[in-house]
Amino acid sequence: MTEKSTVRSVTYDLLRSLRLTTVFGNPGSTEETFLQEFPGDFSYVLALQEASAIAMADAFSQVTGRPALVNLHSSAGVGNAMGNLVAAYHGNTPLIVTAGQQQRELMIGEPYLGNREATTMPKPWVKWSYEPYRAEDVPEAFMRAYAMALQPPAGPVFLSVPLDDWNKPLAGPARVRTVSDRVAPDAERLALFAGRISASRRPALVFGPEVDRSGGWDAAIALAEKLRAAVYGAPLADRVSFPEDHPLFRGPLGMSVKTISDRLAGHDLAVVIGAEVFRYYPYVPGDFLPAGTELLQITASPEAAAAARVGDALLGDAAIAIQALLDLVGEGATRTAPEPMARPRLLPPTPSSPLTPPEVYAALSRVRPPDSVIVNESTSTMAQQIEWLPTIQTGSFFATASGGIGWGVPAAAGIALADRDRGVTRPVIGLIGDGSSQYSVQALWTAAQHKLPIVYVVMRNEEYSILKSFAVLEETPGVPGLDLPGLDIAALARGWGCRAADAGTTQELEQEFKTALSAETTTVIVVRTQPQKAML
Ligand SMILES: Cc1ncc(C[n+]2csc(CCOP(=O)(O)OP(=O)(O)O)c2C)c(N)n1
Ligand SMILES: [Mg+2]
What we know:
Layout: H1 7-17, E1 22-25, H2 32-35, E2 43-46, H3 50-64, E3 68-72, H4 74-90, E4 95-101, E5 129-130, H5 138-150, E6 157-162, H6 187-199, E7 203-207, H7 209-213, H8 217-227, E8 230-233, E9 249-252, H9 257-264, E10 269-273, E11 294-299, H10 302-307, E12 312-315, H11 318-328, H12 357-367, E13 373-377, H13 382-388, E14 397-398, H14 408-421, E15 428-433, H15 443-449, E16 454-460, H16 465-473, H17 489-495, E17 499-503, H18 506-517, E18 523-528
Parallel strand pairs: 1-2, 1-3, 3-4, 4-6, 5-6, 7-8, 7-10, 8-9, 10-11, 11-12, 13-14, 13-15, 15-16, 16-18, 17-18
Helix pairs in contact: 1-5, 3-4, 3-14, 6-11, 8-11, 12-18
């Protein structure tokens, strides 16, 4: 007996064709008509709260290189998801976020759990938001959502689907279409840029997240070496796009108008590829560029190009652009290669108690497997992480793209699920602050249920340390709510089903870390640390 063809069966067939067979979500009554008789070749990844569902799907999509599907519950679920939706938007992640809507017949009377103005709610953090006018349009709406999400600049889209649509009869199949996910830069303008780069005496290259995302890692190295250019990491980057141990790497550019401008002094040309100009934060006034420095920007995002405060922009895929520039620019043989950056790697002469973040990272540098991937959400220790645990391979560093915390814990789970999906085995290391560990903490349950090979190292400094540094910068003494006493994170982690341990010394940390690597499930190691003064 063949199953009768419905909106649901036609949509699932379409999702299959689009390889959208993993659904991240948290279900409600308005989604059960979609989820009924869930097909055996699909998997449902249950998140216990929607912030976790979005961040897991975000990282899953980034690592698989394909759009990912999220199913949320009506307005309440979308509300919980919003913070991490902002990160997916800034990270150009092609997420198809869906939510159930109440029965069409009830909507005029404002029913319980109805999603009023459903398509407005996720804006402006989706590229497209839609509720089909007819049940029969649901599959085509998914096809359009997929095309919208994937085309550059990629990003999340939203579909609201009334619960009574799914069982409506509909003849299939849906029309499957393909679209492109990269756009080449205009050749004439690229040649112009190449000319200006070749003529530069002392160019600086700034590689941003789009480079790693587009697969431009190797080409970026080749371009830097051909030009003999200093390379800087883009401010507040959510992906690392250049080996941080490379002799041409000069460290991150900085974050504020002033620090960035100071850093670029002496370069006659800054070439920013795959990044905003710039992700400024906090506000420290200065000139946008030092005198005598010009700026070129190449990005796939018209929004980022338009919002740049300075410079000349060119639209296009970062990897394609770098590859093309490699052929167009002249060899930089006459340039003196920049001095390698200082890496003082200073540790206290005798072990501290509690440990300092550099001691923690030094210990991890001794036991970290070279193929491991890092998710960083330890807000006050970013500089120390680059110093001790530099990213040296493509696709192996992840952080929130929005600045919202509560992304890292679930993102680590999404990365591990994606690795499993694509047959890659590598440990995922989550470097998480004690404060940051609490926003989407229930993702630990999903990680444990799936036995994901994640080692979370939580630095328990018992405070929102970075906010104390900001209070000094902003000259705002007496801010309440910056201390976090009495938070037993190891006990919480056990409660979600993870292995957990407290480590007080570097020996304990290294031992627990090595045990965790062979544990074949998720471990949370909590290290009591001293606060770290952040350079802002
Ligand atoms: C969703 C969200 N809420 C609040 C903040 C503000 N915020 C930024 S950093 C931070 C503290 C992070 O503390 P912790 O993770 O312990 O790291 P530490 O600074 O101590 O290293 C907070 C609350 C934020 N970025 N995102
Ligand atoms: Mg803290």
